[in-house]
Amino acid sequence: MVARRKVAVVGAALSDCGRVDDATPYALHAQAARRALADAGLDRTLVDGFASAGLGTLAPVEVAAYLGLRPTWVDSTSVGGSTWEVMAAHAADAIAAGHARAVLLVYGSTARADVRAGRRTGTLSFGTRGPLQFEVPYGHTLIAKYAMAARRHMIEYGTTIEQLAAVAVQARANAALNPEAMFRTPVTVDEVLSGPMIADPFTKLHCCVRSDGGAAVLLVAEEYVRDCRTSPVWVLGSGESVSHAAMSEWPDFTVSPAAVSGRLAFERAGVRPSEIDVAEIYDAFTYMTLVTLEDLGFCAKGEGGAFVEKGRLRVEGGELPVNTDGGGLSAQHPGMRGLFLLVEAVRQLRGECGQRQVRRGDGTLPRLAVASGTGGWFCSSGTVVLGAG
Prior knowledge:
By secondary structure, the chain is of the alpha/beta class. About 30% of the residues lie in helices and about 15% in strands. Strands 3-2-4-7-1-8-11-10-9 form a nine-stranded mixed sheet. The chain has a two-stranded antiparallel sheet with strand order 5-6.
């Protein structure tokens, strides 16, 4: 039996993000990939594994061909926003088992530019096939699904709209420290609540921004770490879970699949939530942050509102800095944002985040981070625990 190898993230990068009107999605994939390889200081000839989703008819075949790669291990898992945490888990397992030596994860989207140019419209529905046919006729859009889940939590546990708004306020405070964030002007709870209603109880600022952008992460076997220009960030543990396809089949709107993926990831990493220094959590809507914090074990079920309202999520002075780049609510959200969570977690553990850099109580860099992605309408979850080298 071949001994399982340790796996590290050695390259992490973003393409140009935010408002990018003059690039194709393929170009953003390529830009992010080149930057991730340059970040690691490795040549693309080392890459024998490739993972991509969301672009092309035969993803990841088309994207790999565009990048000039001929991988012998591929993954095109597509489970929405959690895709990249799930792919990272699969890649780490493949490398550990000796099926690949270096796996590149890449994503790119011109979601904002396409709407602006009239190449597509805003996505309100995922379609009308399968289980969705029973919900679409009633106008149950993607945003409405999240709004309904948030309302259930409010009824069940007394969570207030002001507490949900506090998530958006703190995301914007973190974005103010990030020069690459789309929106950096601070907002107040009152400003969040007074915005135009999108889907009750969500006003505009409860919802993520629409942006362009790409990201890439390079994972390698431990024997290649010494050849890299960056400090390794080790994959300590991961978990994945799927929950439901139709809202009518979701047993409890207040429990996300992160309750399973998070438990598995922490158990496999051998760490407790209380040991985590920084958390990068999928935040297409404010409620996602709140309920995922509960389900990952940072607070008890039903206590998420009280947990988020006291400034705990801020880079500056927060007990658990969350979405340190500003998240999907303020930094960027070009569709499936899960890979951006991994990039930010890696950068935080390597101490590369400048003004938004998280420090522990003793002034040292963070040692442990968690990235947790959510897909669909809480349909899937992938969670990865990372440790500094």
